[in-house]
Specification:
heterodimer, A: alpha/beta, 5-stranded parallel beta sheet, 3-stranded antiparallel beta sheet, globular, B: mainly alpha, 85% helix
């Protein structure tokens, strides 16, 4: 079966520093991979490379349609949350339910706490309908309930044939393959 | 997606700071009679040129909010992930900026021309020249905003970059050679999305 994300001997250089080289990985439907490693080891860069926002120095990256959640919220601050989410397409209702932020639908984005914003960015990804999710430090600012809801959303996504690549320096809830990046 | 982006940017402009450059434009036009004195003949002779200087300086004001907020907030990244080329994003930004900037400017030019004792014919010529030139001003503003996005003191740098590029436009506009002005305006408007697209890509980290 064709993988949803595939790295073939990939090397990435940022600011003159080689972050990693000869990296191979493949994510098929139902695969969840956590990229772990200390601060500065290139986890976020790997996610942005997988998203196509950075160019590989060597090797090849193949990707299917994807959605990215990182520390940038990318929602219009002055709009109510639901309208802001709707700009990115799809119907955000079920995703907002899944992340437990339905009651914030009419609250403007600038009033949300950082944990609520994190849930909103995760809801943006969940509402996208993309088969591949890229999550950069998804646990940042999330409370226990948020982490449990994230684990459930990831599980549902994997069950429907999706794949998830997440970068985090702390253990993620659920069943993940691990890829360690050196510092 | 490109239409959704234009609609969004127009909405944000009109509910936000679109009136600021216009207020600035009127303010500059108000300063001229104070600086020159109440000589109606002199004022009406320099009127069109003064309006253009006011329009050029007003075009500088919104530059910092055209690209940088969307870059810092990850909106430009998400647009790229939705398959929108950076040049298309730049085109949408130019179109939206022009829609919120040009009509208000053309309206504001009417009271401004009264302050400068310009007659009806002179106002009409200036309005036509402004209508032809404003797409280029909007395009230049977005291109310069993209090139300077993320830099410290981007605002002052943007002024240094934009004003020299607007000089040909200014020369042909006040010399009443509208076909040449239109040619320059077309060139700037067509080239700006390419420059802005490259700027957006280069600002990505």
């Amino acid at each position: 079966m064709r993988p949803l994300l595939r790295f073939d001997g990939v090397a990435l250089r940022r600011g003159g520093r080689l972050l990693f080289e000869n990296l191979d990985l493949a994510l098929g439907p139902g695969d969840a991979l956590q990229v772990a490693g200390p601060n500065g080891s290139g986890k976020s860069s790997l996610i942005r490379l997988a998203a196509g926002l950075l160019r590989e120095e060597r090797g090849r990256v193949e990707r299917s349609p994807l959605a990215l959640a990182d520390d940038n919220v990318a929602l219009d601050r002055e709009l109510p949350l639901k309208r802001a989410l709707r700009f990115w397409g799809g119907s955000p209702g079920p995703a907002m339910d899944a992340l437990g932020i339905s009651f914030l639908a009419d609250v403007s984005v600038r009033l949300l706490s950082s944990g609520q914003l994190k849930r909103a960015t995760l809801a943006r990804v969940a509402a996208s309908g993309a088969p591949l999710w890229l999550l950069d430090e998804p646990l940042n600012a999330l409370d226990g309930d948020g982490a449990a809801r994230l684990a459930q959303a990831v599980e549902d996504h994997l069950a429907t044939g999706g794949a998830v690549l997440a970068a985090s320096h702390q253990p993620l809830p659920g069943d993940w393959r691990r890829l360690e990046l050196g510092a | 997606m490109i239409w959704a982006l234009i609609v969004r940017d127009v909405r944000r402009g009109l509910t936000g700071s679109a009136w600021l450059p216009i207020a600035f434009f009127l303010l500059v036009a108000t300063l001229v009679p104070f600086a020159i004195g109440p000589d109606a003949r002199l004022l009406s002779r320099i009127g069109p040129g003064a309006l253009w200087i006011a329009a050029l300086t007003a075009a500088l004001l919104p530059i910092e909010r055209l690209i940088e907020p969307d870059r810092a907030d990850g909106v430009l990244d998400q647009l790229a992930l939705h398959g929108l080329a950076e040049e298309s994003v730049a085109f949408a930004k130019i179109a939206a900026h022009w829609l919120t900037f040009a009509p208000l400017l053309l309206v504001a030019a009417v009271p401004a021309s009264a302050l400068l004792a310009m007659n009806g014919a002179s106002l009409a010529r200036t309005e036509i020249a402004l209508a032809i030139g404003t797409p280029a001003l909007a395009a230049l503003a977005v291109a310069v905003a993209a090139v300077t996005a993320g830099l410290p003191r981007a605002g002052s740098l943007a002024g240094l970059l934009l004003l020299p590029l607007a000089v040909p436009l200014l020369i042909f506009a006040v010399a009443d050679t509208l076909l040449l002005e239109a040619a320059v305006s077309l060139l700037l408007t067509a080239g700006a999305p390419l420059v802005a697209g490259a700027g957006i890509r280069a600002a990505r980290t």
